[in-house]
Specification:
heterodimer, A: Rossmann fold, Rossmann fold, 6-stranded mixed beta sheet, 13 helices, 16 strands, B: alpha/beta, globular
């Protein structure tokens, strides 16, 4: 298994290649561009056998993937921020069509003001589209998640799409050592895509037709049942993947040093990597802290979170996005999941790192201290915007 | 009796739910007869999104995917890419969309698909307004027409802007084949679609398809009205192959536009001078088309 030093974006491109995506439809957007460039290079050098449709928008990229998938082809695309939000309508078509499209999304802030740096609002805003969401912490996890996602989503008991997130620049443009599996290993793990229904001239059927109110709910409930099955299948895929490739990035919730922890910080993406370092540091100083990384935001790790809640006194939830008029989306979901939990730790929401601002070990150490003190200090201030400047910019300049 | 040139096979079956006298229904029927069994169709939001029947009914004999309003060009690009990936070359991929879904909301995806030289058929069945949603004006609504969003009222608020010329937009993309077809001329309709089978690349068809509900005419005269559209030069039949224009029907006796307009309630409010203006515009466009045919004769 060769070790290569590649960016997160190249991990996405290599992932699509190793999984033998038969159709790629994509449109360039910063900071995703090196994904589409690398795939173009693979195709131009005859290293990747794919129909690469160089479309005129992200909306078309997703719509083309849906119809290609319904015709029985394995599909891949990648986008970011404005591209992802432009897709919003067709994302819902993709899940409703039960097409297991796999997409890389480079988490980038939404304008205005213009920003190309890391922020989770783009994908958080797609929460209700019926897509699974994986937030990767490393370039290795980006690559491995693509392989896992095809295996999971193409399962006939699932047939749902999945987007894999990587933080803009922190992963997309930062090189890390990545174990690149052999093609034969991936082929052995991931059989060709063979959906139970597809467009077929010898068996003509209408797809996505009109249903009246007497059936619409049943179609939606069928999807819900697929999601419930997926929860278990995610664990199976993660286990099989570890057997085959020797790596495990966690299933829905990636729990790190939470045994006997008093306080836990929850985070997603690269902030979790920094948290890991801070946890080690604080543990060495005798502080009982841990990290619970949100790997899957959808399906949401409800049961895993409730188990964790039995063991800890307080949980801080770090959101790299903000839902105006309420709070951080991860926090709201955590709080909602714990409402009917028999044990309810103290909770606090930290809004940090919007628009690509660094979330430093110094900041995280302070947050861990704050979470540790929550049971004593109370949660009067439920939501804290972390590291704000004293003088905000003028609202209109 | 002359030789029958239209295939007898039917791929549009009883059970469809088109309105009485629907021109769009005939367009689908002739298109499928022309292209046959090995055809896949993508349909966006439009009348045909419901006409093939609601779940679990399905009145067509070819596979079909329903898509979002603006993505027909994208959808057929995806189907073709998937077939190419599987090495399947002998299947016709057809986008079948209304005028709003083509000339307005779907024009970007269509432009992209044809610019990429995708091997597809695209049929715009033109009933000159958003009929499925209840007769709202589209970019393809002709000037002078009443619709529910150009309601005339007390201020003569009929459609003022010209009809968007989709054929010229497609010709400007330098695609190999563009043609106008009309449900009143099924032999010509079928022939032009069959011709497309031998052309590798995008084929665009502007299909004239009257809508009795929206045009305010009796359903039994749909075909007559469609025929009058061509024989008054309102909707000439022609094709453009690699830039070369060929008019496929030159009416022997030109019908005055007034007669065509007069059968339709959607034009009944028009004052005489507006009718004359429309006639002048139709004459000018016909003259232009004749000159294009002449100019490109040697292409």
């Amino acid at each position: 298994m060769p070790k290569v030093v590649i960016t997160g974006n190249y991990s996405l491109a290599y992932g699509a290649k190793l999984c033998r995506a038969e159709v790629v439809a994509a449109y360039p957007i910063t900071p995703q561009t090196t994904v589409v460039e690398k795939i173009a290079e693979f195709v131009a050098n005859d290293e990747m056998d794919t129909q690469y449709v160089k479309v005129e928008s992200e909306h078309t990229a997703m719509a083309a993937c849906i119809s290609a998938s319904l015709t029985g082809a394995r599909t891949f695309t990648a986008t970011s921020a404005h591209g992802l939000t432009l897709m919003h309508e067709v994302l819902i078509w993709a899940s409703g069509s039960r097409t297991p499209i796999i997409m890389g999304n480079i988490n980038r802030a939404m304008a205005p003001p213009w920003s190309v740096w890391a922020d989770h609002l783009d994908s958080v805003a797609q929460r209700d589209t019926g897509w699974m969401q994986i937030y990767a912490e490393t370039n290795q996890e980006v690559l491995d998640s693509i392989i896992q996602a095809y295996k999971l989503c193409e399962n006939n008991d699932v047939l749902l799409p999945c987007m894999i997130m990587e933080d803009a620049f922190f992963l997309s443009h930062t090189s890390e050592a990545v174990d690149l599996p052999e093609q034969s290993e991936v082929d052995a793990f991931l059989p060709p895509f063979d959906p139970p229904e597809k467009l077929d001239v010898d068996d003509p059927k209408g797809f996505c037709s009109l249903v009246m109110p007497d059936w619409y709910m049943e179609f939606r409930y069928l999807m819900h049942e697929a999601w419930n099955r997926a929860r278990k299948i995610i664990y199976d895929v993660v286990e099989d993947f570890e057997k085959k490739f020797g790596r495990n990035h966690g299933a829905l919730l990636d729990i790190y040093r939470c045994d006997d922890a008093d306080a836990v910080l929850m985070a997603a993406g690269t902030a979790a990597a920094t948290c890991r370092e801070v946890v080690d540091d604080l543990r060495s100083k005798g502080k009982k802290v841990g990290l619970a990384r949100i790997r899957f935001f959808r399906p949401f790790p409800t049961d895993e979170l409730r188990s964790l809640a039995k063991e800890v006194d307080s949980i801080g939830v770090l959101d790299r996005s903000f839902t105006f008029g309420h709070g951080g989306a991860f926090y709201s979901e955590v709080a909602g999941a714990l409402y009917n939990s028999p044990t309810k730790p103290a909770l606090k929401n930290y809004i940090a790192g919007l628009g690509g601002r660094d979330i430093t070990p110094v900041t995280l150490e302070r947050l861990f201290e704050d979470v540790l003190n929550l049971p004593e200090n109370g949660t009067e201030q439920e939501i804290e915007w972390v590291d704000l400047k004293d003088t905000p910019p003028k609202e209109v300049s | 009796m002359g030789k029958i040139t239209i295939p007898e096979e039917e791929y549009m079956h009883p059970g469809h739910i088109a309105c009485l006298g629907c021109g769009g229904a005939l367009a689908m029927r002739y298109m499928l007869k022309a292209l046959g069994k090995r055809t896949m169709v993508s349909i966006p939001a439009c009348c045909w999104a419901i006409m093939h029947g609601k779940h679990p009914n399905f009145a067509l004999g070819v596979p079909l995917v329903n898509t979002a309003f603006e993505v027909t060009g994208a959808s057929i690009s995806g189907i073709r890419a998937a077939l190419d990936a599987k090495g399947i070359k002998d299947v016709n991929v057809v986008g079948f969309a209304g005028d709003g879904g083509t000339a307005d909301i779907g024009i970007q995806a269509l432009s992209g698909a044809v610019e990429r030289n995708t091997n597809i058929f695209y049929v715009m069945y033109d009933n000159e307004a958003y009929m499925n949603t209840g007769i709202q004006r589209s970019g393809a609504t002709p000037p002078g027409a009443w619709t529910t969003t150009t309601p005339v009222g007390t201020t003569q608020d009929w459609k003022k802007a010209p009809k968007k010329n989709m054929v010229e937009i497609m010709v400007a993309h330098k695609i190999p084949y563009t043609a106008t077809i009309n449900i009143a001329f099924p032999e010509d309709f079928v022939k032009k679609l069959q011709k497309g089978k031998d052309i590798d690349g995008p084929k665009f068809y502007h299909a004239f398809a009257p809508c009795p509900t929206g045009w305010r005419h009796p359903p039994e005269i749909t075909v007559s009205i469609a025929k009058m559209a061509t024989d008054s030069n309102v909707f000439p039949l022609f094709e453009v192959e690699e830039g070369k224009y060929t008019i496929t029907r030159k009416p022997k006796k030109r019908i005055p536009v007034k007669e065509y307009l007069g059968l339709q309630g959607r034009f009944r409010h028009l004052p005489e001078e507006m009718v004359e203006r429309i006639q002048r515009e139709v004459d000018r466009e016909w003259e232009l088309l004749l000159r294009k045919e002449e100019y490109t004769a040697d292409f």
